[in-house]
Structures are given as structure tokens and as C-alpha cells.
Amino acid sequence: MKHRYVGRAVPKSDARALTTGKPVYTDDIAPAGCLIVKVLRSPHAHALIEDINTDIAKKVPGIACVLTWKDVPQHRFTMAGQTFPEPSPYDRLILDRRVRFVGDAVAIVAGETEEAVDRALRLVKVKYEVLEPVLDPHTAKDNPILVHPESDWVANCPVGADNKRNLCASGQDGHGDIEAVLATCDVVLERTYHTKANQQAMMETFRTFTQLDAYGRLNVISSTQVPFHVRRILSIALGIPKSKIRVVKPRLGGGFGAKQTVVTEIYPAIVTMKTGRPAKIIYTRYESQIASSPRHEMEVTVRIGAMRDGTIRGIDLYTLSNTGAFGEHGPTTVGLSGHKPIPLYSANQEAYRFRYDVVYTNVMSAGAYRGYGATQGTFAVESIVGELADVLGIDPVELRLKNLTREGQIMPAYYGETANACALDRCVTRVREMIGWDEKVKPRVMPDGKIRAVGMAMAMQGSGISNVDVGSVIIRLSDDGTYNMLIGCTDMGTGCDTILAQMAADCLDCRMEQIAVYASDTDVAPYDSGSYASATTYVTGMACVRACTELREKIVRAGAKHLLLTPDEVEFDGARVYALSDETRAVTLADIAYGAQCGCTEALSATVSHSSPVSPPPFMAGACEIEVDPETGHVELLDYVAAVDCGTPINPALARVQTEGGLVQGIGMALYEDVVYSDKGVDLSNSFMQYKIPSRLDIGKIRVVFESSYEKTGPFGAKSIGEIVINTPSPAIADAVARATGVRVRTLPITAEKIVMGMQEKA
Amino acid sequence: MKISYTLNGRARTDEVDPARPLTEYLRAQGCLSVKRGCETSNCGLCTVLVDGRPVLSCTTLTARINGKSVLTLEGLEDRAAEIGGYLAAQGAEQCGFCSPGLIMNIIAMTDELTDPTEDEIREYLAGNLCRCTGYVSQLRAIRQYLADRKEAEQA
What we know:
The structure holds 2 protein chains of 2 kinds.
Chain A: H1 15-19, H2 26-29, E1 35-41, E2 47-53, H3 55-58, E3 63-67, E4 98-99, E5 105-111, H4 114-123, E6 125-130, E7 167-175, H5 178-183, E8 187-195, E9 207-212, E10 218-222, H6 227-238, E11 245-248, H7 266-275, E12 279-282, H8 285-290, E13 297-306, E14 312-324, H9 330-339, E15 351-360, H10 374-392, H11 396-403, E16 410-411, E17 417-418, H12 424-435, H13 437-440, E18 444-445, E19 451-460, E20 471-477, E21 483-487, H14 496-507, E22 515-518, H15 536-562, E23 570-572, E24 576-579, E25 586-588, H16 589-595, E26 605-610, E27 619-628, E28 635-645, H17 652-671, E29 701-706, H18 729-741, H19 752-762
Parallel strand pairs in A: 1-12, 10-11, 14-15, 21-22, 28-29
Antiparallel strand pairs in A: 1-5, 2-4, 2-6, 3-5, 7-15, 8-13, 9-10, 9-12, 13-14, 16-17, 18-19, 19-27, 20-21, 20-26, 23-24, 24-25, 27-28
Chain B: E1 2-7, E2 10-15, H1 22-28, E3 47-50, E4 53-56, E5 69-71, H2 77-90, H3 99-112, H4 118-124, H5 136-154
Parallel strand pairs in B: 1-5
Antiparallel strand pairs in B: 1-2, 3-4, 3-5
Helix pairs in contact in B: 2-3, 2-5
């Protein structure tokens, strides 16, 4: 079915404001004269504050307050933006006597000028009892040194957490008897893969401003993906009622999961509560690099069992995840490292087992980053499938086609869900053609000695968290036949404000310009979990479809009443309600709308909350061609092709850019990006000088196609796209490097050094 | 320090802290299109034109604009909107935070280079980082903009 807007590359509604530099971001709209807030940070990876003296700092002219652990509420909370009760343990205080990583908050300073605050920061005198840190995740579990020895640490969900063992989470699940299956396989491979912490590196760093409104309520304007979670977390941390807090999200300069953690909000919030004055915090890039919420470093050990003919019968996977000093998203990200890659191979899978430990260490807390554990697990599983293909002497594409999940199959490792909409096989076949796999699968030495080779990987993700995520939409008819749509999800540049309006316009048979979208404000918008977990298109999108359907029914009823007919005697065409028996007998939408403002007792509005019992996975395949210089190990990415099954692409241009952008982040992860610590726990990747994200010179051709399936439980057949797109580059590039050089890099990033050293070892 | 300069076409004289980064100074003058993405001259978000040449305002001292002409996106709204339209058609503005710096540099490139090749475009704009788009949609937009511009000039 052809729609007027869905399926069309409509420009984003905010494009003009964004491209002409209008002041629409948090720092642009912060009131002049608000206090500048900064955080004094620990120079030690692990220490106790023996004494902290703020007397001199407070005397600096212009300083409004200097807060230490003695001045803030002492009940623990988590900064993870998750549905309550959060699976992440309550392990944080706003300021703690114990500091747990280099960069951990020691004191909060607020003042009228940046100069005054900087001066005061230097004048806070801290005496530390320096403790030995736990820096190696391998030795963290059951280490005598505890990152969280405190007695008020609490895990609100049964996630296998134990602070006396440095465990943020642990557990296992499975299906079938994995040991019995592996024992009867012709080939069992075991390999360990290591992915590193990566920074989301959104261009707008973390930032928030706060002020009290006319009712004395705390107003929080923040660059966040999760306004409703921010409200709850601040309420818990500050010990004030939620009714006293309002959270507003302006335009966001990117998020990628970083802003699913409440990284900055608490600091100006407590300053405003203490002083009554507006306050803002703008993280520098340095702070965004050293005290933020990067991807969990994971070490994934996979055992895979197959028969000589390539039948993959079982996967056994163990993940060791490093959550750092705090447990934000620790118990949940790890789950995806098994539950997303293992079900890619459901076709012949007789058994799987997935075990994991998530450990505390004295580095910055990890958090949510696009892919959320699936990225790490996919690197491992897709890499070992490549290695298995080598061992079996089977073409890796054929091996995948023999074992991949097809439409209609049950995925035991994906909560037993059925792949009702799945074009994974088509995706693989398509990228095979696009990259010219069959001609290029044998590496070619070029006349200059460089070697060209191809590599491939598959991936899946989810569409929201089943039975948890809630998306809500309020849509109402306004004066003259236009609509107001209020949503609680958060457009962070992804374009959800636009695509939801596309859906609404098609549901209501109107022009998009007739729909005014507003998001997001916890006082105004209906509850939404927030934009994360690839939920917005699928979950909030369905809320939008349902709300519009409900409003249509109300409009029909109101129109029928005008015409003195029953609802089944009339039809609504988007502009008017008319009698089926006589189309000239009609009432316009504008008249119905004005009628609703005069002597009316039924509001022409609809409010719908939606949640899904399933999380239909988007699927994709990616393939690359690289050129390796065997002298230097330098990898040049010549071509990257991707075929994506996101269900119906609601806006093909935005879906394409999501894919291209995700691929390039994945390429950065594969080749360059690494949060590196010194042996004292100092983050050395503390600027864009050290932490290199891809520039436009670092990428070759990137080609994206859509191989759509139709997801019946999604709006207009849509699933999701935001996260899956980051998952294939690491394994695909590692695969190509292995094919070109014989060196299988199992620890990211795939640097020139690792390749050259590997080649030397082999020689 | 007292400086005289032109901001978006208007002559101004101001008493300034000469060592203040130009980014902060311009934002304080209401030029909020100027964004800061790093402190190390890596991201290109803070690009403005000084005497027609693109500079990174985060590492330019305010004193350096004395006697010069400064253009920010606020002074180039029509050209920004035109280029922005091409970006938006591809969905290539995404979060938009890097758009002002990128568009400033596209304007500088258009003024400096005639008929740049794809490699020249990438080279010229290499200092403008973007984390959302992966750059390819931006390249499509820029090539279309340049092609349409050329066609309009020839017509």
C-alpha cells in the first residue's frame, strides 16, 4: 500500500533551525547569569577522603557554594536511565567519601564566573588515604579489594550482584544440553575475543541547566535521552518528591546511548536546590572523555560446535564485562552479548549456553552505547564463525546461509521468540553480490604489494525492550482542524519527531504541516521510557498509530452528531466527515474542531500508551573490502556494503543516514577507538587528540540497501534501525584482515601494530 | 584590551579580555550558532570566517580579530539555509550540532575552490567531524549543491 508520507524521504521538521544555527540546544537557552558549576575530580583511582577543607575556596569572590560529601544526601542511587526498578544496582552517592576512579567527583563548586570557579577548584584542600585500585577485570571477581564495600549498596533486581565479590551482575541461561551437543560435534572451536571501552563522542558534550520556577519547582533542562528517568533519578538522589521536578529536553547534539545515563544533571540540580539560583554545567570534551558512560569493555569466550558439513549445532558463550566503578547498565548490556548474536544461528541450533560475570573495577563507569552489548557479542560470534569456516574449509557465506535464522523459525536464545519478519538470508545474499564476494574471496596481491581482501558479518538487535518499554502519544484536534501531538520520546538528531508526524499524517489523512509535534517535557508529554533500546520507531510509533486511530473514531462520532447521523453512516477523509449516502452532506474538520470548543463534553483527543510483548529483531549483513599494506599493517577500507532489514523504512533517507552513521561508528570501533588507561588508572584517551574518531578521510565507499520484511506488530510494518547498524564492521573488518594477512585480530581495535606483529610471529 | 572589528557586517568596538577564546566571546555576543565540540582544534564545530578565511574560533584569541571582519552563520543565514536544504534533503544534518561549523566551511570552500573534486571536498572538510552521519550523506548533499550551483551559473 502506498502512503503519502510513510516510506518517503521527508526532511526533518527541525532542519532549517539546525542548519541555520538557531539557538535550540541546552547551552543556547540557558539564562544569562546562571551559576557555572564544575566538579573537582579525584586524581586517584581508589582513595578515601580523609579530610576536605573548603574554607578558602568559599572565600573566592563570586563563589556561591562548594559542596562536599558532607553536604549532600547520603542515600544511594543509580544514574542509569532505566525503567524502575532499575536493574543497575544503587551504588552511587552524589558525592562519596570513597572515590573509585581517576575523575570521580570529590566536590561541586558553583560560582558566578568560570574564572572564579576554576580558582576555587584549585583552593579546595583534600587529604586522601590512597588505596590500591582494582584495575584488571580478570582479577576483580573475589578480589580482596572491594570497589563497593559499603553496607548500603543495594541491587533492586535479582541480577546476580554481590558487592562483596565485586560483582555487579552474574548469571546464566541456556537451552538444551550444550555439553552433550558439543561432545558429539565433529569440530569444536574455542576462542576469546576482547572488545574495549569506546566513547560515544557525540558532538554535544554532556550538559544541563536548572532553575526554580514560579511554583518553586526544580526545572531541569538537559541534553538527555530519558527525561522521565531523569526526573525519577533526581527525585531519589535529592530526596525530593517527583512532583517538585520538571525535566525538559531541548534539541540534542547527539546521544548514542551516552545520554541514557544521568551524567551531569545531578550537579546543577543540587546547586539550585542549595542556592535557589539558576545553575548550569557544560562538560568539556576532556570531562566527557574521562568521567562519562562509555561502552562496556567485554571479553567474550565462545565455544562453537559444528559438523564437517558445516551444520552449527551449539554455541557456548561466556562474557566477562567490565562495568567500571559503578554499575550503570552493567546487568543489562551483558545480556545482549549473548542474546543478540547467538540467535543469528538458530536454524540448526540444538543447544546454547550463555554465562556471564559483570565486575566492578576502578575505572570510569561504563554505560549505554548504541548496540548495548550486542556489538561486543557480535564481534565474538561473527569472528568465530569466520574462524570455523576456515577450519572446515567452507566458504563463510555458505556457512552462514546454511545456519542463519530464517523467517518463521524459533530463536531459543532470543527468549524463544519467532522470527516473524526476517530477511536475513536476503541481506546476506545481497551483500555477497554487492561486494563481489565470489570473485574477491581469494585475497589478491596488488602490483604495489598491498593485499586486498573481503570480509563479512551479520547482526541483529531488538526493537524496544519487550514488556518493559512504554511509548505514549497524546494527539488532539485543535481550533481549525490542525493537530497537536505530544510525545515523550527524545529526538536526538535521529528524526523521530519527524517520522512520528509522518505516521500520524498518514493515519489522519492530513498534511504533515497540520501536525504540531512537541517533545519532550515531563510536565506536558505523556510518559515514555525514552529513546533507547531501538524502541522509538517500533514502540512509540505504534502508540502513535493507535492514538490516531482512536482520535479518528472520535472525530467520526463528533461529525456524525453534527450531521444528525450515526457513526456508521459517515466517513472521514481527513478534511471532512460526510454522509455515505450523500457526499455533499458534510461537516469540515475545522467546524468539528470549533464545535469541540463550544458546549462540548467530549474532548477530541486521544492518549495511548503502548508496550510490546515481543521485540522483533531487525537483521542485517555487512561486507567490506580492505587493502592491507603488509609492510606497515595499515588497513585502508575501500568499500563497505550493508543490507538492512528494519521492516518498513518509515523515512528512507533518515534510515539510510542512521545506517551510514552507525557503520562509521562501527568502523571507528574496529580500527581506531580505544579508551586506554595508564597502570595507575589514568584515562589517557582524554581528548580528540588521543581518542580518534573517523574523519571523512578515513572511510571509503559506503553503500546501503534495504531488504525489507514486514513486521505485523510494528507501525506500518516497521521494526527498528538505530543500534543494529554499529554491529557488523568490527567482525567484518577483522575477517577481511585475517583473509588478507592470516592474522586474526581478536582484541579490538585492529591496529596496524597488531597486524604487523601478528604477521611477524607467523613468519 | 580595546578592539575594533566587523561582526556580520556591522562595525563594532569593544573592551575585551584578549586571551578569551573567540568561541566564548562570539557566543557572548549572541552568535550562538558557534559551537564548541572540543578544546583541541580537532572537531571544526567552532569554525567562523575571519577576513573570509575559515578559522577555528576555539583556539583563536579574541585579540586576533582586531581590525578584522568576522562572519558567523548568523550573518550568512540565506546561504546557510540554501546549503542546509541540501543537507536536509539527505537527512544529513541529523543532530545538527556540527552543522554550523560544517556549513561555514562549505561556504569557505565554495568561495575558494572552483569545481572541487570529491577528494578535494573531503580534504577541505576533513577537519569537520560529525558523529551522526558517517559523512557519506553530507558528501551527496554537497555534490548536489555544487552541481546545482554550477548549473545555475551557466544558465
